[in-house]
Amino acid sequence: MFAFRLAVAVLLGLVAAGVSGAKQNVVRVQILSKVDEELGVYWINTWSKGALVKQKEEPIVPNGSLNVDSYYGHSFLVVDDQHAEGLTNYKPELWNPKIMAMFTMGEFDLEVTVSRDAKGNLVHVAESAMTRTTRLMETASKVCRRSPEVVKATAKRKGLAAAEGSCTIAGAQGEDEMIPEFAECLTKAIAQDLAKKETEANKSMRMLEVVGDRARNYTCADPEMETTNSSLPSVKWQDPEGGLTYNAQVFLDDPAAKIYLVDNFATDKECKALMDHASPHLQDATVNGGAGKATLSQARRAKAGGVGADLNNKNSVTAPLYRRGYGFANHVTGYKLDMDGQEGYSVIKYGSDDEYRPHCDGDCTGAEFRPGGRVATMVIYCEQATVGGGTTFSSSDVFINGKKGQAAFFSYLGPDNKTDKGRTRHSGCPIIEGTKWIATLWMRMGVTAEKSWQHYDPSGLPSAYALAQAKSGVSATDAASVEAQHSAVDGRKAREAFARGVRI
């Protein structure tokens, strides 16, 4: 066991240092849509007569985005998806600015924003890590140029020949001639260095996922694996409603990523109520499949049912647990989350060979947070499998073998409004023997009673319900209710039936 943990630690250390056998010339592009139409993204294969290779079957929805790993010199075509049918090869004579935009990858990671200009043409703005850091440094240079210290240093050098390698000009006559040259030199030198570091950091994050997934497979295969021993000091929190004090182990405490395990968080009575009320409504669990739609996937094999917490019912068994979850979350994160408009419980049953492969519950790319998206998760363990079923955070070298009544809590939004960069990516190990029951609370920021979680997908993009509302004028709540009812009748899988979740 010790040898395995040591090996994992060495691998993670190598990744953090940027030492890996992975391709070193990979660069990433993030394509952001600012148009009302859905967009298709194609790589132009110049070695095969301009054959167009679609990067994802699902188009980019309005205000959505797509991340693609690519290489220096590769070109991409962005097309209004409704006009893409029959488009197999790119030829210059087919160019149509009304429905097409094109860009080529450079040396650094790229962010491409697609919009329409005043003439209605599809246009794009490409900004690389290099240009972003250059802009930041140009701002710093302006400040530097007015700095009294720099002005004084310039006066001392006035009329003197510049030293070799200096950013000053020999015989410069005053600040206006001399300092801009210094600022330009400073900007280029530091911006290039920072851009390389940003690109390498993104590569390291992707390599961390690969190493973490391999470590996860070994972890899940070990039937004797116990919860990770934490070296961080534990946290205590007193529930103002029940008066009890809860002790939480701390496994990760970074600004944008935190992982805790709280002992004795749920009572037997609370767990039994959740399982009993969810059992008649269990359906195949789904994942977010793009365009705000819930989709079945082999990556997630389990049964799930929605159970709402009736917070206004004084006799509710599970409402105190719900409030307790949000109380703890706000205590350790400072988020100040409101319970209005939040998701109910997702009660999940894992049977033999069921699992949930590595994933993030919200956005974990380090991107700017979108209001309405998930920012934290609480997993309440109500029944422990005999063998298997642990929870892995392989990118953070954390394993939790959750026992009945414990609750794992993790958050993935930093104070700078940027999301976690993969540290809370996690999985549920396969069940080898027995059954595992959990109740999950997915917590969001920016939802209200009037515009609830049903309007957003996990990352904060418009949900299928919100898109249906926009197209037909039907409210998102009504659309969710209708789809959930259809799911119960004909087997279509609605979004875990939360819209009709039983309230207890």
From TrEMBL:
SMART domains referenced in this protein's UniProt entry, alphabetically: P4Hc (SM00702)
InterPro entries per record: P4HA-like (IPR045054), Pro_4_hyd_alph (IPR006620), Pro_4_hyd_alph_FE2OG_OXY (IPR044862)
Names of required cofactors: L-ascorbate
Signal peptide limits: 1-21
Keyword Nucleus carried by entry: no
Molecular function as annotated in GO: iron ion binding; L-ascorbic acid binding; procollagen-proline 4-dioxygenase activity
UniProt keyword list: Dioxygenase, Iron, Metal-binding, Oxidoreductase, Signal
GO cellular-component term (any): endoplasmic reticulum
Domain Prolyl 4-hydroxylase alpha subunit: 257-444
Protein name: Prolyl 4-hydroxylase alpha subunit domain-containing protein
